[in-house]
UniProtKB/TrEMBL annotation:
Listed name of the protein: Anti-sigma factor antagonist
Pfam families: STAS
InterPro entries the UniProt entry points to: Anti-sigma_ant, STAS_dom, STAS_dom_sf
NCBIfam families, per the entry: ant_ant_sig (TIGR00377)
Length: 115
């Protein structure tokens, strides 16, 4: 994924994805495939840890929205954590901040994703 690396972890049956770098039109499809693979594997609790994310474009926001809808359709929760002020601004301006649990720490996000 050009300009993007994603660390994967699993805690208490919650998939934790930590993208680092940029999510934009050049790599959004690859990131989407990874997230949807987790849902297909039966992960209904997913955390996106944005602590190392530098930039997210509208294509990246679309991936988050699609992932959230898929997870919700399966009865689960997509939680976001560690948003930098810049990334938080993007989510606030787009209105996406109200669509998902957004918390400070990974631990809080895992608890939110577990329901």
């Amino acid at each position: 994924m050009s300009g993007l690396s994603v660390a994967e972890d699993e805690v208490d049956d919650v998939a934790v994805l930590a993208p680092a770098g940029r999510i934009d039109s050049t790599n959004a499809k690859s990131f989407e495939a990874l997230v949807l693979q987790k849902v297909q594997e039966g992960k209904t609790g997913i955390v996106m840890d944005f602590g190392d994310l530098e930039y997210i474009s509208s294509a990246g926001l679309r991936v988050v929205l699609i992932a959230g809808k898929k997870v919700k359709a399966e009865g689960g929760v997509l939680a976001l954590c560690r948003l930098s002020p810049t990334i938080r601004d993007v989510f606030e301006i787009s209105g996406f901040i109200s669509l998902f649990p957004v918390v400070e720490t990974r631990e809080e996000a895992i608890a939110a994703a577990k329901g």
